[in-house]
Amino acid sequence: VTPVGRRYDTVTFLSDLGTRDESAGVVRAVLRDLVPGVSVVDLTHELPAFDVRTASLALARAVAYLPECVILAAVDPSPGERPAVAIEVADGAGVFVGPDNGLMAPGVAMAGGAQRAVALTATDLHLGTPGSTFRARDVLAPIAAQLCEGVDLAELGEPVDPVLLVPGVVPLPRDEGDAIVAEVLWVDRFGNVQLNVGPEDLVRRWSLGPTSPVAIDVRTVAGDLLRRVATWVEGYHEVASGALGLVVDSSGMLALVANRGDASLEIGLAAGDQVVMTLVAESDAPEGVTTAVNLRRR
Amino acid sequence: VTPVGRRYDTVTFLSDLGTRDESAGVVRAVLRDLVPGVSVVDLTHELPAFDVRTASLALARAVAYLPECVILAAVDPSPGERPAVAIEVADGAGVFVGPDNGLMAPGVAMAGGAQRAVALTATDLHLGTPGSTFRARDVLAPIAAQLCEGVDLAELGEPVDPVLLVPGVVPLPRDEGDAIVAEVLWVDRFGNVQLNVGPEDLVRRWSLGPTSPVAIDVRTVAGDLLRRVATWVEGYHEVASGALGLVVDSSGMLALVANRGDASLEIGLAAGDQVVMTLVAESDAPEGVTTAVNLRRR
Amino acid sequence: VTPVGRRYDTVTFLSDLGTRDESAGVVRAVLRDLVPGVSVVDLTHELPAFDVRTASLALARAVAYLPECVILAAVDPSPGERPAVAIEVADGAGVFVGPDNGLMAPGVAMAGGAQRAVALTATDLHLGTPGSTFRARDVLAPIAAQLCEGVDLAELGEPVDPVLLVPGVVPLPRDEGDAIVAEVLWVDRFGNVQLNVGPEDLVRRWSLGPTSPVAIDVRTVAGDLLRRVATWVEGYHEVASGALGLVVDSSGMLALVANRGDASLEIGLAAGDQVVMTLVAESDAPEGVTTAVNLRRR
Fold first, then answer.
1. What is the β-pairing status of strands B39-44 and B114-119?
2. Are B197 and B252 in contact (CB under 8 A)?
């Protein structure tokens, strides 16, 4: 390999390794050992175990905020099945290093798409360590270190045509009769329920804008249909106590929210659940909305 | 804005953003991007959601141990209601950046009080990002970065009279007849129960010192009164198995503790609970104390 | 004390302080304050409270991957009983700083054994802080900082003969009739069950190699004996759905694993549990194994 001088000074690291044992720390230690001057920015290590979809969306939400860096992504339910890959984006402003299982695909797309990709088949560059189960430590960390040192992608293994990489699965909303059938992308720590619908979808479909009420139909676990009305507001503080709001969240998507409360608990929604949105027929005035919600709550 | 050269090389960061998703990591990434040479010291991101009091006490306990730094504090149940603020303390040895909701008040007081304050109304200094819900990322992080770069408080927005900042709520113990009525400030991971009573309070009231027994009355969830005797000891190892101790804890407050056990579980206490302390009438000898505890346990 | 110039630029930090409050963060802040240029690599702070054995194994697994550094280890159920110690290993490539309770012993052994040790009795080098309960902040952090600055072990307190340090407890497997009686060392976040048996034990005892089936007998909580067959495979992906595998894990030990599943849940094993391994009498063919497992599951 031919290091050409420090290329990246930051490794952004996310995984499902958890924080209850030393696993994620050992990966940080390997990076510290191999490239002492490089900073590690931990995004999170408590992504649900094996949950490639949840992790891929977390990474995609973060991409726009990262410095030039190597991204080490380790949610890897089957490390033995397929070689890990490195994917270069944005004329080298970033390189994603991780499994080829769709984990990195939405983030790569957010960064403008894959320009070059390589399967990490040059095993002499990996750590000569026991077992084959801890790829973040044994493969991804040393490769990330070498990328930081300026080693070119081409030296890491066999080139891969970017179109052959495993794609990500980002569900799109669909129109169905009068309704928009949406899906929950993410529930954050506060119970805010991010949908795969942006404000532009409501504008396009119904010419709605802020202060507009939208009917939200959710299928409960028991199979019943729960109807709530949510009003499109500017921020949490505009949501009346006990009511539901729709805000443009920090990813630019619409989220169902409560005011200092947990909207996901109140309406029983988790990531992957379906939400059917329709236009509210009654008065659009916030007063009317509040009434509607109260009535429907019985 | 007029950067005058690196002023702070550390940002101390605490929040209720959690660690299960990328939120706190994205704030770190923004800081890394804007001020690459600055270190981030994470205090914790698992403060209970929306719990300004718990967070304000955690920050206050930490303040004496911080280097010169910018403190980024994000426990912010209502980001839209009131502008965030920056508060300068100790002739510029530190600047607190966060919501004006009392979160920072006890820490500011520990640092000698607010000398200057400003509302972060210069929105052109914030990130131009979607939504208005993620103030830690979009307002606090870029402002912290600018403070690190030497930008003066006055350039960040409208000055605020420090006496008009929302105060913190730190409960004080009170004398009631023969008793000191105390409150639980904090239960740490080990179940140690920090009270809002210092050793000087026992000395002042009862001229007590180490090895003295104190009766502890706690109202149980069922409404009964539970009486235990706790002996003031130097360390956990002096607490007999099954007994309760009172130690001067790492904040200089009295804490109810067990020896390798969880005192909070044993006596059913959580932050905010009331504890009534009285002098034990019987012999002050440790032997006597042990007996008293055993008797009362029946 | 006589600092001789920066000796270590990294402090590796693990503890049972948890991450729900500021405790571990305050230790990081003290290090940042005392030795601003030193990086802290967090291994984990969520080790079970007071659990010296679990923590000692986590540290031992990490040691081979650490850079030259000071290791600050804080799982310390009885801080008042015995002075903390510093232990030098590998001609000064590392110094362990922590309680003398066996926590560091397996890690020290992994690093080649203690060469020098000292009790941290020079209290003037510690922080002059309230209480005596937070030794990580008040003793271990300032001592780690001084070691980074080049202060020699001899200046930190009274020398201790390394053979008098409290030993670690690492259980060894034993032969019992036809069986190997093993113990669970660790269950990782994914439910992989690390045993205290290495692949060389199976080779020595039964001349087994990969693709060999091994009978696994586990005593259930109800006292019954559960028998499962596990096949020695190269990786998770070779384990059939619903079956158990044995893999050489990332520490070089054998672990019971499932394919994208939680083996510990399925067979009800936790750290410290006993596992009896015997040779499977039936055909060694993988087909036969699968049958055996299914039969025994009834």
1. unpaired
2. no
List, in order, residues 6 or more apart from C170 with CB less than 8 Å away: C56, C57, C60, C106, C196
User: 3-class DSSP state for residue C260?
Assistant: coil
End-to-end CA separation in angstroms for chain B? 69
Strand intervals (E) in chain B = 10-15, 39-44, 69-74, 85-89, 94-98, 114-119, 174-176, 179-187, 193-195, 213-219, 225-232, 244-248, 254-257, 274-279
| Least confident span in B222-226, C61-65, C88-92 | B222-226
**Rounded CA gap, A55 and A43, in Å?**
11
Euclidean distance between CA atoms C136 and C124, whole angstroms? 16
Secondary structure class of A260 (helix, strand, coil): coil
Strands C94-98 vs B213-219: parallel, antiparallel or unpaired = unpaired
For residue C115 the two structure tokens come to: 């060469």
Write the CB contacts of A65 (distance below 8 Å, at least 6 apart in sequence): B26, B29, B30, B33, B137
Handedness of CA C16, C19, C23, C28 (dihedral sign): positive
ipTM confidence: 0.93
Contacts of B134 (CB under 8 A, 6+ apart): A249, A250, B23
Which residues of A fall within a CB distance of 8 Å from B25?
A: 12, 14, 41-44, 62
**Helical (H) or strand (E) element with C102:** none
A 10 A CB-CB count for B26 gives 27
Q: Select from B190, B237, B255 the Cβ nearest to the Cβ of C81.
A: B237
Q: Tell whether C194 is within 8 A of chain A (Cβ).
A: no
- Is the pLDDT reported for residue B284 higher than 70? no
Structure tokens at A263: 């909207």
- Which among B24, B25, B78 is the nearest to A237, CB-wise? B78
- Six-digit token string for C80: 């008042």
Indicate yes or no: CB of A186 within 8 angstroms of CB of B21. Answer: yes
- DSSP letters, B5-72, are S---SEEEEEESS-SSSSHHHHHHHHHHHH-TT-EEEEEES-SPTT-HHHHHHHHHHHGGG--SEEEE
Q: What residues of chain A lie within 8 A of the CB of C6, using their CB?
A: none
Whose CA is closest to B156, among B188, B130, B120, B206? B120
Both tokens of residue A227? 């109807």
Residue C115: is its pLDDT beyond 90?
yes
Residue A255: CB atoms within 10 Å: 27
> pLDDT per residue over C175-206, tens digit each?
999 999 999 999 999 999 999 999 999 999 99
Check if the beta carbon of residue A229 is closer than 8 Å to that of residue A244.
yes
Q: Does A38 touch chain B (CB under 8 A)?
A: no
Please name the residue that has the structure tokens 């000398």.
B115
How much is the pTM? 0.93
CA angle, residues C254, C257, C258, in degrees to nearest 5: 160
Q: Which of A22, A78, A80 sits opposite C44 (nearest CB)?
A: A22
**Which of B153, B201, B192 lies closest to B174, judged by CA?**
B201
